[in-house]
Structure prediction request, 350 residues.
Amino acid sequence: MFFTAIDYWIFLEKAILILAVVSISLVIAMYATWAERKVAAVMQDRRGPNRAGPFGLFQPLADGVKLFMKEEIIPNVSAKFLFVMAPALAMITALMTSAVIPWGSSVHLFGRDISLQIADINIGILYIFGVISLGVYGIMIGGWASNNKFSLLAAIRGASQMISYELAMGLSLIAVLMMTGSLRLSVIVAQQSEGFFNWNIIYQPLGFLIFFICALAECNRTPFDLPEAENELNFGYHQEYSSMKLGFYLFAEYINMFISGVVMATLFFGGYDIPFVNEAAWGNHWWVALLGCGMLMTKALFFVFLFMWIRWTIPRFRYDQLMNVGWKKLIPLALINMVITAAVMLFFSK
Prediction:
C-alpha cells in the first residue's frame, strides 16, 4: 500500500495540530497553578506569588525546575513497575481527551481546507467518556502500588467517587444528545453556531448544572476532593510520590480542569462560536479560525476560574454526603431532565 502526497500532507497537519494542542494544554496547566494561587490570594487578602519574575509569572517555571531537581524516591515495598506507570497513565489519559474536540472552524491554507480537529469521529462523546474512565486506573494503580494504607484508602475513595459521578454525567448528556441527534462533537457545535439563542445552555440549564457538578467530582476538585483529604488521609493517593511523578499527577489534575472547561463550552456554550456574530459571512480565513479558537479558550478558562473560585469558598463534603449527592440527588435529577426533554420534543414534533 502506497501513500500519496495528500496522505503525507494530512499526516503533517495532524502531527502539527497534536503538538499544538499538547503544548497549549501543558502551558495552560502550568500557569493554572499560578492563577490558582493568585485567585486564592485575592480571596484571602494576600499578594500571592510575587517574587519569581514580574507579578510572580516565573513561579510555575521555578516549581517545574524544583520538581525535576528533587530526589526521586521509589519505596522498596512498592510494586515498582505499576508505581512508575500510574502517574504516566494519569497524564496520558488527561491529554488524550482533547483529540476529538473541534478547536475552531476549518482554515483554508496552501490551497487546502485544514480542520482544527485531530479526529472527527462519529462517537466523539463516547470516546471522551471512555478515556475519562481509563483515568480512574491512574489513581487506583498509584494508590495500590505504593503499598501504603493511606494511599490505598484515598485511591478507593477516588475510584468509587469517579465511577459514581460518571453515571450522572452520562445521563445529563443524554438529553443534549436527544436534541442534537449526533455523538459527533463537530455536529453539536455546528448546530449551536447560528446564534447565542441556539446554544444548548438555553434549552438544557439543568443538564449543564448536573454536568458541571459532576465535572468537579471527576477532577477531584473542592468540594469533592475527598481522595486528597490531607487532614484525613495524610496526603492522598500520591503520598509516596516525589519529583516529576508527583508533578504528573498535579499536572493531570489541571489539564483535566482545562479539558473539562473546553468540553462544557463545546457541549453547552456553542464551542468556538462567537456570540451575536455571523462568522460564516467572514469566510474560512485563518484569522476567523483564530478568533473562534480564542473564544473557545476564553469560555474554557472562565470555567477554570470558576473551579478555582469554588475551591476557595466551599468546604469539603464528608464522604457520606458526597455519595448521597451523587446517587440520591444528581442521578434522579438527570433522569427527570431526560424524561422532560423527551416529552417536550415529542410534543413539539406533532
Observations:
- Residues 5-43 form the longest helix (39 residues).
